[in-house]
Amino acid sequence: MQRKGGAALTTPDTPKSDNPLKRSFGRIRQLLPEKWRQPAPVIAVLPLSGTIGTGSRFSSSLSMTKVAKLIDGAFAVKGAKAVALVINSPGGSPAQSHLIMRRIRALSAEKKLPVFAFVEDVAASGGYMIACAADEIIADPASILGSIGVVSASFGFDKLIEKIGVERRVHTAGRSKTMLDPFRPENPEDVERLAALQRDIHDMFIALVKERRAGKLKGEDEQLFSGEFWLAPRAIELGLADAIGDVRSTMRARYGEKVRFKTVTEPRGLLARRLGLGAHFSAAESEQLTEGILAALEGRAIRARFGL
Fold first, then answer.
1. Where is this region: Disordered (predicted)?
2. How far is CA 101 from CA 50, 95, 153, 201, 208, in A?
């Protein structure tokens, strides 16, 4: 350091860290109590609850569009040591489940942050696929995991319209455009095509679970991937989960008693704001509200499969 006319001049030999202000902060920090000198570790908590699918703006379903910003926000929490997924989902769309799972894995690798999945009520089917984004899966002893399979459900109305005297007329270009039409008798060829699609999705699901749970799976493929589901203790025995626990106690055991939790959630929804203001719905919003109610009923039916 050289002086000229009373002013300090920085020379090439001056260390870049030789900053008077920085040194002052360093001295002050040494005088602070130890609990203030060492900031508490932070865990970003991301709740993922509901059936999985695109849905409408009024539904509580999970989709990539709805949760992308929340996932990004969880991995952007300042000072985060890990991301904790709190999962309550009976499944739904395999595509949306896969998109969400891959986004979490990509950000985990990019930010070099470990991911923990905490299963509360259920992580089944697509819900379990999302749980596989975690490095460890931890579950409540009464939670349900598994259902690694693919299901499609519909109704047949061909006898109903015949009974009430309705004739349905459909004109198509392409012989498979009316595949699985609920107003026509079931076609064995259509059923076989659907089964082939299901097998492909199932194979992808199995490969994903084997990749993410490599070295941990203990059951036979025929059992693990049959679509069966289990309570957490049995799922742990089969290697589908790692431990019993909850987010608070587990994270405190891993990162210390002073760990802080930052929950990442979306702002209060449009429906709640509108109801609070007593405003009117537009025709489009009314239709979306109806779709949301129907989606909620469908989600309730899916959860009922697991006794929830």
1. 1-22
2. 15, 10, 24, 15, 10
Read off the CATH number of the domain in which 42 is found: 3.90.226.10
Q: Whose CA is closest to 201, among 305, 121, 91?
A: 91
**Residue 37: which residues within 8 A CB-CB, separation 6 or more?**
29, 30
Q: Which of 308, 284, 253, 271 is nearest to 116 (CA)?
A: 253
Q: Residues 126-144: pLDDT tens digits?
A: 999 999 999 999 999 999 9
Tokens of 137: 């899966």
The CA-atom distances, in angstroms, between 188 and each of 178, 179, 194, 195, 289 are 13, 10, 10, 10, 37
Instruction: Quote the number of domains for the chain.
Output: 2
Whole-angstrom Cα distance, residue 120 to residue 144? Answer: 8
Tens of pLDDT, residue by residue over 243-280, are: 999 999 999 999 999 999 999 998 765 544 444 444 44
3-state secondary structure of 242: coil
What would you report as the CA-atom Rg of the chain, rounded to the nearest whole angstrom? Answer: 27
Q: Which tens digits make up the pLDDT trace of 13-30?
A: 544 556 666 666 566 656
Distance of alpha carbon 288 from alpha carbon 118, whole angstroms = 31
Task: Please state, in angstroms and rounded to a whole number, the distance separating the CA atoms of residues 133 and 48.
Answer: 12
- Residue 157 sits in which domain range? 151-212
In a domain, 189, yes or no: yes
Cα(69)–Cα(72) distance, rounded to whole angstroms? Answer: 5
Helices (H) and strands (E) in the chain, counts: 12, 10
In terms of phi and psi (left: phi > 0; alpha: psi -120 to 50; beta: otherwise), the region of 107 is: alpha
